[in-house]
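Collaboration report, partner site 2.

Our partner group contributed sequences for two proteins of shared interest, and the home lab folded both. The records are reproduced in the order in which they were received, starting with the first partner submission.
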Amino acid sequence: MDTTGLNSLGSNAFLQLLTTQLKYQDPLKPMDNTQFVSQLAQFSQLEQLSSINKSVTSSSDAITSMNNKSLANLIGKNVLAEGGTISLVNGNASQTAYELKGDASNVEINISDSMGKIVRTMQMGPQVAGIQTPSWDGLSDAGTSLPQGGYTYSVSAKNIQGLPVSTTTYTQGKVNGVIYDRGSAYLIINGEKVPASGVLQVY
């Protein structure tokens, strides 16, 4: 049975059809009581579903509106969020931050330019588990100053047994804008899109 029509049938139209059916039914062959009660039950369910749908839609719209306002309030503020971007302006790089899930005997940071080319590798040596905040001087491996702009970085770490240590990189910087892409909200930090859901700290 095709239920497309029933799904799109509004409560007013349903009531009108039911009234018309009662008006034009054959007096000698009245509607079966069971069928009549069944139709009334369907009407009641339709009313309840319509009411629930309106309530859910209203609540969803309210939540979306509040989220949009909250994100807009972040513009101009500094945040710490999951990501891996660095902004280099006039030789000054934004702070890097990453978390080691365990103690590491060796930690390596690779910084790449906008084309994905590694321009600097920093050996950090052994580090303990937790959040680390090393600084980058904005220089390449050759010791030359790099052009200002957006860069990305990744962290690899191994423990004393030579096994990989899980890491999470973070982005720190000022929020310059908010955009929405395919239903998800992103903050513009250091010229890059960072998921708004990944914000850990606002300061």
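Second partner submission, folded after the first:
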Amino acid sequence: MAVRKQIESTARVLDPLKQKGLSVTGSRRKILQLFMQQKGALSHGDIEKKAGVTFDRVTIYRTLQTFLDKGIIHAIPTADNAVRYALCQDECGPGHHDHQHIHFICSRCKQIFCLDHFVTPDLHLPKGYQAKDVDVLVKGVCKECSAIAKRA
């Protein structure tokens, strides 16, 4: 039974890579697995810590850039000009990201979550303006941190 779960887990990680036409490398497999195990978004530094000494900074950067280009992950700009990354939904593809959802940052645990079911509002810009991307970042306390605060 444990072997079957491991095979299913490996297939779950390899499928997005194969679907996007990428060769399966150790770094791609490990970094994608980190995203799949994470509830919130990851920074480059988070990936470095979680991956251990296995991959250098350049390998992680190139892997993230490839994942962005292929529509596997999307970038989330934060208020402090840092960037975090989260898995894309199925609608994204090479050179095309379709993210009309809100991002939530917890002021306590500092995690960023994609709120996929809450879409960004339609903007009615003045004549001559064209929106390319709309990023909505909501700040507050996530449900896990709220639950901890209630128990304390």
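Feedback sent to the partner group on the second submission included the following. Helices lie at 2-19, 26-37, 44-51, 57-70, 143-151. The longest strand covers residues 112-119.
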